[in-house]
Amino acid sequence: AQSVTQLGSHVSVSEGALVLLRCNYSSSVPPYLFWYVQYPNQGLQLLLKYTSAATLVKGINGFEAEFKKSETSFHLTKPSAHMSDAAEYFCAVSGSGNQFYFGTGTSLTVIP
Amino acid sequence: EPEVTQTPSHQVTQMGQEVILRCVPISNHLYFYWYRQILGQKVEFLVSFYNNEISEKSEIFDDQFSVERPDGSNFTLKIRSTKLEDSAMYFCASSQQGDYNSPLHFGNGTRLTVT
Fold first, then answer.
1. Lowest CB count within 10 Å: A46, A67, B9, B82, which one?
2. What is the Cβ-side half-sphere exposure of residue B96, based on CA atoms within 13 angstroms?
3. Does the beta carbon of A99 lie under 8 angstroms from any beta carbon of chain B?
């Protein structure tokens, strides 16, 4: 079975500061991991995905995530937050069949 | 860039009524999905659909729910005899392939409110 846990339902950072959104996964098979972003009144948009090719994955809008098997983590980072980054972020895992399992989401607030 | 479109954006219905949520997946995608998100909770998988039949469904997807691809472009979710707890945001998604490597493309969702 697969699942993800997102630590921190709300994260606030100052504009220009580092963004770190945490995700830990549980999977009985090699996982495929994803980060999605949801802007207000919009659907989920793929930020990046890990599919075992490289442990450091770069996505859109300057985000990246590192797969750490020893820590069962896939944390999302961005060196410098921008006001437009304010959104809900979801970590997801899939590994068998075509089901994706999502976390509860982390709401990112960027303070000017 | 092609996108998944969902209508309506907001649906209000009375308890016990039937609703149909509509989706137009990306045209060259073969796999279609419905997810839902109850306010403050996880995005939950409901059902996946391929080749005109359900390929997987969750425990949530009971006899109250059904899906259909009535023509070459639409993909619908029908909820019969709605309950208060069906109030949620319902997301349609599609993917080119059905494997775990193929990301989902989501629509903007339909907010269903059952009163």
1. B9
2. 5
3. yes
Q: State the sign of the Cα–Cα–Cα–Cα dihedral A29, A21, A102, A41.
A: negative
Q: Sorting pLDDT into bands at 50, 70 and 90, what band is A63?
A: very high
Which of A25, A44, A48, A96 is the best substitution to test chain B (most B C-beta atoms within 10 A)? A44
pLDDT in tens, B45-65: 999 999 999 998 999 999 999
Position A28 confidence tier, pLDDT thresholds 50, 70, 90? confident
**pLDDT, tens digit, for every residue of A13-22?**
999 999 999 9
* Shortest CA gap B76–chain A (Å): 17
Q: Which candidate, B37, B3, B111, B45, places its Cα nearest to that of A96?
A: B45
